[in-house]
């Protein structure tokens, strides 16, 4: 039995050792904002925050989150920083098919939480592990910089 | 993607517990971040092993400075290395390398011990640690011993670790007046395995190289040192000519192969480029001029 916190709620789930965190969240617990892409740690679509750090859930075994805090975008629905990010993404057209969006929002959230006014270079580094096959990244990077400015104006 | 099958996961809270499992269970293999091991399991479909998760063992994690030595636990993540002021100051090459490993997600998860024990010739932590004269602490239930890190690597994906042994620590000395640099070339700037990588360590005495060490990755079955080149430049007055000479000599040491990431010829050319960059940067970091 794996016991962990998912978006602030306690969860106990009978997960075999061979189940990935991605499958436990998405297939078993129905958290479909966590996307299944490459399953190799390359694309970032399955990104979640574990104790606040972005990690790719496809290469983590479900029992490895025992006692940890797992957070998906669902857990940040009411979070002020996440709200700014979402709005900036919508206004700048940073979402096309949306497959990469939950993962990128989580990477961006972790960046702005720890670094209120990142440089463009720092934004690029933060989302290096999130592949977007639609937008070409420009609108995404601008959105993250916009959100930073709204949260912490000069 | 085929589902994973055929392994169990054990999560011992203590080192002794882990070592007991390693010596009593057949086909036991450590796992920490899983960033190397899980993707290979997916490719293979199944593998009948007991995975021993070292991630809960507190004494295996962290960075410490003690008696003129830096000690690094094997489960220390690349993010911990990257954000450590001690590492940035005492082993800049290792700090540089951590910056280029994977992505934020991979650096948050992947560990320095996993990077070394996975024994990829392209492992980015290896050249910096090699030039800093790192040693590896190998331990079984019966005994522990330190070996030069270079001796850990036996071949591509092969280490000297016996089935009951794990890596429990790394250490290297801190030397005043020393600095280092790491350089790499990948298919793109970030988030990709190195096509070639190189680290250089120097100690400066006025305008001369009191000590010089060079390590190269992805140009041989394992990460290597270039002692022939080091002997050539040690004690010499630093100059652009000396840098060129070292870079040329490193090309002779490099014995790369063609593979999907690059040709042998390209790797040899890039070896020279990277060694030059690393020598210049390490030298400047000691306050030396060119
Ligand atoms: C998308 C992606 C990008 C990557 N980019 C890079 C990169 O740019 N540069 C780079 O060098 N690597 C890269 N890697 C490889 C990998 O992330 C690193 O090698 C990482 O440091 C491995 O650490 P881990 O804890 O995840 O290892 P694991 O996968 O848990 O283990 C790796 C191997 O080491 C063994 N092992 C682990 N710890 C010990 C120990 N203490 N004692 C004995 N054996 C042990 C395991 O049994 C296994 O064989 C990348 C991986 C991915 C998925
Ligand atoms: S699905 Fe996990 S990184 Fe692509
Ligand atoms: S919007 Fe389609 S992958 Fe990014």
Would you spell out the secondary-structure blueprint of this structure?
The complex is a heterodimer of chains A (154) and B (290).
Chain A (H helix, E strand, L loop, with lengths): L1 E5 L2 E5 L7 H8 L18 E4 L2 E4 L12 E3 L8 H12 L9 H14 L5 H7 L11 H14 L3
Parallel strand pairs in A: 1-5
Antiparallel strand pairs in A: 1-2, 3-4, 3-5
Chain B lengths: L4 E6 L4 H10 L3 E4 L5 H8 L1 E8 L9 E4 L2 E4 L5 H5 L2 H6 L1 H9 L3 H6 L2 H6 L8 H6 L3 E5 L4 E5 L4 E3 L2 E2 L6 E8 L4 E9 L7 E12 L2 E10 L6 E2 L1 H7 L6 H14 L10 H22 L5
Parallel strand pairs in B: 1-3, 2-3
Antiparallel strand pairs in B: 4-5, 5-10, 6-7, 6-10, 8-9, 11-12, 12-13, 13-14
Helix pairs in contact in B: 9-10, 10-11
The structure holds flavin-adenine dinucleotide (FAD) and FE2/S2 (inorganic) cluster (FES) (2 copies).
One FE2/S2 (inorganic) cluster binds next to loops of chain A.
How would you explain this protein's 3D organization?
The complex is a heterodimer of chains A (154) and B (290). Chain A is of the alpha+beta class. Chain A is 36% helix and 14% strand. Chain A has five helices and five strands. Chain A has a five-stranded mixed β-sheet with strand order 2-1-5-3-4, with helices on one face. In chain A, helix 2 packs across helix 3 (101-114) and helix 2 (80-91) crosses helix 5. The N and C termini of chain A lie far apart (49 Å). The mean pLDDT of chain A is 97. By secondary structure, chain B is of the alpha+beta class. Chain B folds into three domains: 8-53, 2-Layer Sandwich (Uridine Diphospho-n-acetylenolpyruvylglucosamine Reductase, domain 2), CATH 3.30.43.10; 62-173, Uridine Diphospho-n-acetylenolpyruvylglucosamine Reductase, domain 3; 178-285, Enolase-like, domain 1 (2-Layer Sandwich). Helices cover 34% and strands 28% of the residues of chain B. Chain B has eleven helices and 14 strands. Chain B has helices at 15-24, 37-44, 78-82, 85-90, 92-100, 104-109, 112-117, 126-131, 227-233, 240-253, 264-285; strands spanning 5-10, 28-31, 46-53, 63-66, 69-72, 135-139, 144-148, 153-155, 158-159, 166-173, 178-186, 194-205, 208-217, 224-225. In chain B, strand 6 (135-139) and strand 7 (144-148) form a beta hairpin. The N and C termini of chain B lie far apart (54 Å). The chains are: A alpha+beta (154), B alpha+beta (290). The A-B interface holds A 17-20, 23, 39-41, 44, 47, 50, 53-56, 59-61, 63-64, 66, 107, 110, 125-126, 128-130 and B 1, 3-9, 11, 31, 34-35, 38-39, 42, 51, 53, 55, 79, 102-106, 108-109, 190-191. One FE2/S2 (inorganic) cluster (FES) binds next to loops of chain A.
């Amino acid at each position: 039995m794996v016991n962990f916190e998912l978006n602030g709620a306690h969860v106990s789930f009978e997960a075999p050792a061979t189940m990935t965190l991605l499958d436990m969240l998405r297939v078993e617990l129905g958290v479909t904002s966590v996307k299944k892409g490459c399953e190799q740690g390359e694309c970032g679509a399955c990104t979640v925050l574990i104790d606040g750090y972005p990690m790719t859930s496809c290469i983590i075994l479900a029992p490895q989150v025992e006692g940890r805090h797992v957070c998906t975008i669902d857990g940040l629905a009411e979070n002020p920083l996440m709200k700014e990010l979402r709005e900036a993404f919508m206004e700048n057209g940073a979402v096309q098919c949306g497959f990469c969006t939950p993962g990128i929002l989580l990477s961006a959230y972790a960046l702005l939480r720890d670094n209120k006014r990142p440089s463009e270079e720092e934004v690029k580094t933060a989302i290096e592990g999130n592949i977007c096959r639609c937008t070409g990244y420009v609108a995404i990077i601008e959105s993250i910089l916009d959100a930073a400015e709204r949260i912490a104006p000069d | 993607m085929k589902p994973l099958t055929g392994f169990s996961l054990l999560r011992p809270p203590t080192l002794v517990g882990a070592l007991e499992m390693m010596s009593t269970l057949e086909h036991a293999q450590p796992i920490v971040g899983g960033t190397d091991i899980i993707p290979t399991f997916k490719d293979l479909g199944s593998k009948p092993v007991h995975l021993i998760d070292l991630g809960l063992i507190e004494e295996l994690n962290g960075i410490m400075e003690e008696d003129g030595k830096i000690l690094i636990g094997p489960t220390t993540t690349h993010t911990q290395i990257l954000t450590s002021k001690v590492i940035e100051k005492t082993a800049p090459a290792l700090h540089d390398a951590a910056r280029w490993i994977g992505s934020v997600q991979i650096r948050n998860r992947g560990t320095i011990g996993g990077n070394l024990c996975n024994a990829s010739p392209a492992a980015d932590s290896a050249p910096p640690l090699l030039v800093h004269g790192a040693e590896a602490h190998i331990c079984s239930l019966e005994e522990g011993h330190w070996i030069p890190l270079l001796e850990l690597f036996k071949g591509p994906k092969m280490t000297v670790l016996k089935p009951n042994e794990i890596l429990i620590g790394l250490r290297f000395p801190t030397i005043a007046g020393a600095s280092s640099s790491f350089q790499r070339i990948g298919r793109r700037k970030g988030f990709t395995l190195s096509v070639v990588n190189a680290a250089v360590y120097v100690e400066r005495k006025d305008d001369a190289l009191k000590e010089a060490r060079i390590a190269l990755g992805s140009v041989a079955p394992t990460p290597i040192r270039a002692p022939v080149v080091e002997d050539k430049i040690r004690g010499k007055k630093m100059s652009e000519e000396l840098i060129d000479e070292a870079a040329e000599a490193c090309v002779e040491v490099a014995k790369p192969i063609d593979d999907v990431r690059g040709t042998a010829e390209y790797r040899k050319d890039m070896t020279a480029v990277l060694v030059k960059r690393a020598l210049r940067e390490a030298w400047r970091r000691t306050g030396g001029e060119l």
